[in-house]
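Repro case for the chain-ordering regression, as requested:
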Amino acid sequence: MLLRHGAPAARILAFGGYQPANVVTNDDLAKSVDTSDEWIRSRVGIASRRIAGPDETVTDMAVAAGGKALAASGLSPADIDLVIVATCTPEVQIPNVSASAAHRLGIIAPGAYDLNAACAGFCYALANAADAVRAGTARHVLVIGAEKLSQWVDWTDRSTCIIFADGAGAAVVGPVTDPGEQPGIGPVAWGSAGSLADKISITDRDSFIVQEGQAVFRWATTELAPVARAACERAGVAPEDLDVFVPHQANLRIVEAIARRLRIGARVADDIVHAGNTSSASIPLALSRMIERDEIASGQLALLLGYGAGMCYAAQVIRVP
Amino acid sequence: MAMTEQEILAGLGEIIDEIAGVPADEVTPDKSFVDDLDIDSLSMVEIAVAAQDKFGVEIPDDELKNLKTVQDVVVFVQRSGVSA
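-- result from build under test --
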């Protein structure tokens, strides 16, 4: 039996992000539910979020973000041979988002699958992509996180409708080809806590997302800092050498609490302020926006930490493309 | 060895300073978390998690909701520490 030879290491070539045009402010929400701008800002740290149009699908957003990442990578669609879409909010179960999105992007006959690890989805997909490149089963992988949470939110429930939003983020993953070049994606530290699966759920196709906020907050502040530290250790990176920490943008209070427990001096992503919680899209969306604004530079070390329903979690250190 | 009330109070002061930005010298036994120190329920959870690290005493959510003042936490930690 012949084995393919992959790359010694994988890296991220580029990021891309997409947000729907429609901005929904806290004052907009206060018109329909009993809440206020002050309350939302203090409890979840969100000032505004983007909500997709009624006809705008998860696939539309995946294509928009994937197209930007592809363009920024300098590759052509023909160079991509695997597309992974992390999503927990597709409109339909069949067909999947990834094959349709790949087709619309002009990617010819790639391996294509959707992955549901909820808000941890992007980090799971990134790990799968890096492993495929290293194993030689793919040379270039398009990884996308895309969500339309607005269609699973009860817009009369003030505990959830203030948090969740829509958007997409993407990354192009490829091999490290220059022998002098450093690996760009560290080994993943991942896991799950299925005993807490009922803490965040959508119980059937006619219901909405519900969560036990305080239980989730306690789990996140207790269990995730060790996961983040394990990812640093596996990458051989000391936490004090990190340039930026990009946790899933669940709630600014959770983000700040985890950062405090990690005691890292690095910049901490706060994209949630103007993006809301976009589940699997939040990490690549935050990174693409920070790169666009020159807030982070090529070669810097970023710690990614995805976590959410399941409860699933995954973390890895990457080098900013 | 059980900690003294003074040691627990000092430790709690450090935690609350770090998490809620309330100067440690304002963390006195009679203070109410919500009314005097302006600490909300999420910060209380974070304080409970940090207290577990510092004192080795778990404060579950069911207990946490009954701890209204600084003294309540000191007493809880002391009692749990003694029984441990």
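Ordering looks correct now. The interface with chain A takes residues 18-19, 40-42, 45-46, 48-50, 52, 61 of chain B (CB under 8 Å).
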